[in-house]
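One thing: can you check what follows?
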Amino acid sequence: MMQIRAVVSFLAAYVLLGVVAQGQTLRRVAAIELPGPGGKRFDYLTIDPDDDYLISAHLAADQTYVIDLATNKVVATVTDTPGAEGVEYVPELKKFYTSNAHDNTIGVVDLRQMKVVKKLKTEAKPDGSAYAVPFHKLYVSDERGKAEAVVDVTKDEIVKTLHFESETGMPQYDPVARKVYVNLEDQDIFAATDNVVGRYPVGKCKGNHGMALDPEHHRAFLSCEGNELMTVFDLDKKTAIAFLSLPGGPDVIKFDPGLRRIYVACYSGAIAVFHQDDADHYRKLEDFRVQHAVHTVAVDLKTHKLYTPEQEEDGKPVARMVVYEVVGDR
């Protein structure tokens, strides 16, 4: 079997009540009511582009939704995903995996049956996850366990666990470098295969939790929750090259390479929108106002639409998925 060249992790010290329907960069076009209950925290989203499904972890409701993006309808509510945080789709096996923080397991969900078919025990508080397609390996950050679980998806077994001296944040697989990068939130950055191969400081970024990659230009984008910065990291030079300000409570960060936009969902009630002018130059387009407690986002790379779940509206509990389309600078 091929061996993955490297998993690289970023360590760090290196993861408004009213809503404006349209800003300079985004326009709200739909809202999908979810089973709920309302007022409960959501977490990561992922898109299954083969079936045009959006998969949404409703962390505090202990369930996960599968939403048909063609109809904007919920087609399944998958239970037995207690405290689901991370969700990752594995296309060749028609499965997705949930990181279940409430029982410290990784849930294996069969998309054909729309149910959990197996659970894998992890260290403590599994969170973000990333899939390395050529190697059939899923990497799951055990945030409180200060570890990274490596799952062989052909067997649905944890084949290795990497341990660190830091809580682990969001991992990402780089298909160009054939590496997995993982945030080490309390320190600076790490690189590993099924062994750690490097650790790199991330400059003045503090509490790097969220991560997105631009493999083409060898860049990583980090959301730094400790000091509210979006950090651009040069993966070739192993150094941070830009720092841009964020609203309060930055969490999930996504990159749309087609539009060269970076989005950061911030708990204080904004999605920060940045433009990549070139690999070394970035500018903020807008802090687009959303509901308070919105902290996660998914981007459909085919349509460029954004999806983000709301748990409250003007302080009142709701459970809905809001859809935005792009306007303005493209």
